[in-house]
Design a protein that fits this description.
Blueprint (H helix, E strand, L loop, with lengths): L3 E7 L10 E4 L11 H4 L6 H8 L4 H17 L6 E7 L5 H15 L4 E5 L10
Parallel strand pairs: 1-3, 1-4, 2-3
Length: 126
């Protein structure tokens, strides 16, 4: 199977990266940023990952995105499949989703590279 590159990002930090598939997590999934106890944490912190992964619809979206990646990879063109997933600031939902998708794809033997464009940037004050 084709390799996959996953890039998480925050829309508040700039335009989405170029990708074959872009997932916008901003409007349909609760933002951990609204919880003061999670605001300054990131997807590297278990409470953030647990909160995001427990959000209704996230697990189904990971599965659906994995199926979409497989469809892209089945096409006749060679090269990696690039998935970009974004949330508002790029510190909570998007990187957690990216890591979950990478884990899901790796269980199927897919080679996956993950990068987080905005994870290390300061919290956006809004």
């Amino acid at each position: 199977m084709t390799s996959v590159e996953i890039v998480s990002f925050g829309y508040l930090h700039g335009e989405p990266p170029a990708a074959h598939l872009t997932i916008d997590l901003r409007h349909h999934f609760r933002d951990p940023h609204v919880s003061p106890e999670l605001r300054y944490m990131t997807a590297h912190d278990e409470p953030v990952r647990a909160t995001v992964l427990a959000t209704p619809g996230i697990a189904a979206l990971v599965e659906a995105t994995a199926a979409a990646v497989a469809a892209f990879a089945a096409g006749p063109s060679a090269g990696p499949v690039i998935v970009a997933d974004g949330c508002a600031g790029g510190r909570h939902r998007a990187p957690t989703f990216a890591m979950a998708l990478a884990d899901r794809l790796r269980r199927n033997g897919v080679t996956v590279a993950v990068s987080h464009r905005d994870l290390a940037k300061p919290v956006v004050q809004r």
